[in-house]
Prior knowledge:
disulfide oxidoreductase activity, globular, signal, Glutaredoxin, 5 helices, two-stranded antiparallel sheet, alpha/beta
Amino acid sequence: MFERINRYVQCMAAAIALIAASLPLHANDLVVGKPAPPITLSTLDGKHIALGDLRGKVVILTFWATWCGPCQQELPLLSQYAREHAKDGLVVLGFSLDDADNMQQVHAAADRLSFPVGLLGDPHVAGYGRIWHLPVSFTVDRHGLLVDNGWKDQDPTWTQARLDSVVTPLLKASH
Length: 175
């Protein structure tokens, strides 16, 4: 009897593993050229910035963490670019995946950035999927349409060349 139960449990475990393996790793509703899913940044200083309220701006949603080496390399470049192009209508929103225990490190990082930062709280973000790879960013045009899906990029880390090819043309486009 125990052998039969053990075989049943093993079969069920194998079936569950097969089903889980067939599910997308980061299920999301992201389609380039379609409206970006709504998201709101709750900043470290208690403000709330909703993507929907930023129509007319080019928006980069960047997900990062203080313990992420590539993030620490990317953030200064992204901050400088955001500062240089704020007058052109660029807004960067920084979502930290750190937990509340790392607030001192998050504040220290945020103090060096030219864009607002907040804690993400839950790595499962409606419409964007589970944020499992860092850094990852999504770019939204002035009309609220997704123009760059960080999940689809071979190398999603921002470089000056990538910013110049993805974001700069959006900033030069008429409002």
